[in-house]
Amino acid sequence: MKISLFTSDQPRHNYLVNSLSGIASKLFVLQEKKVVSSEKIFGNYNISNVKKKYFSNVIEAQNKIFSNCKINKKENINVLSINSGDLNKCTMDYLSRLLKSDIYIVFGSSYIKGDLVNFLIKNKAINVHMGISPYYRGTDCNFWSLYDNNSHLTGSTIHFLSKGLDSGPILYHALSEIKHDPFFYTMSTVKAAVDSITERVVDKKIFKFAEKQQDKSLELRYSKKSEFTDEIIEKFLNKKINLSKKFDLSMLKDPFFLKN
Fold first, then answer.
1. CA angle (118 as vertex; 115, 123 as ends), nearest 5
2. Alpha-carbon distance 60 to 177, whole Å?
3. What pLDDT does residue 23 have?
């Protein structure tokens, strides 16, 4: 089985690369390298003391769960590295070795446009959205679900790629039963997404889910990057986040739960 992955270069993305390399005969990876300037920090947000504090917690949780993961050196992994933001500058010829696979997965890449997105949609590419759609769409969705005290709607949506942001037909949701603290919890939902994809590709369940169209009337928040302000982050850091809400399975589609 040949798999192509369009992703980024953080430990959580490398973890997915390594996981998929264990089940693919060939794994082709388009990896966008984050270029962080002296004025930018993790996530390409402008530097501030509040954001530094917030993202230091994110990085700590990520490193605990993914052990600062690096890509394994294996013969079946073929990595093409580009700078973040350059994906839509690449021609289809340049990307040709990634366009002959059996499965296409998108996780953490830039917003894909043009001929490439048309190709991926035609070939039923699977996208990982870190947020529970259709309730939370946009950016930083799991931050906002916790900010809204909706811990039961913190997780990921595995869906078919579409031209709209996080709007493609849903295959299933991936969540975590681990709730030690907000940062560890949200990062554990990332592991749930990665582990679920690997498991459900192996057992072929991912090809058997009945897709579900997203009901936009259920949307609770469509978040924008501009809304992630120092004032909001400070409120988040100072408030007691409610992690006790029980999951309502009627709100979820074929959920996968990370239990350890």
1. 125
2. 19
3. 96
Asked if 134 and 165 touch (Cβ cutoff 8 Å), the reply is no
Output the pLDDT for position 244.
87
CA distances from 258 to 85, 190, 242 (A): 32, 10, 19
Residue range 41-53: average pLDDT? 78
**Which residues have C-beta within 8 Å of that of residue 228, sequence separation ≥ 6?**
45, 139, 140, 143
The domain defined by 2-258 carries CATH number 3.40.50.170: yes
CB of 187 closer than 8 Å to CB of 179: no
**Side-chain half-sphere exposure of 175, counting CA atoms within 13 A:** 22
Domain positions in the chain are 2-258
State both tokens at 212.
């579900």
Tell me if residue 55 falls in helix, strand or coil. helix
Encoded amino acid at 142, one letter: N
* Tokens read off for 71: 């890509």
3-state helix, strand, coil in the chain (%, to 5): 35, 20, 40
Q: Which residues contact 204 (CB under 8 A, 6 or more apart)?
A: none
The total of other beta-carbon atoms located within 10 Å of residue 9's CB is 18
**pTM, to two decimals:** 0.93
Measured CA distances, 197 to 13, 40, 228, 240, 243 (Å): 13, 31, 29, 32, 25
68 burial (CB, 10 Å; 0-12 / 13-18 / 19+) is exposed
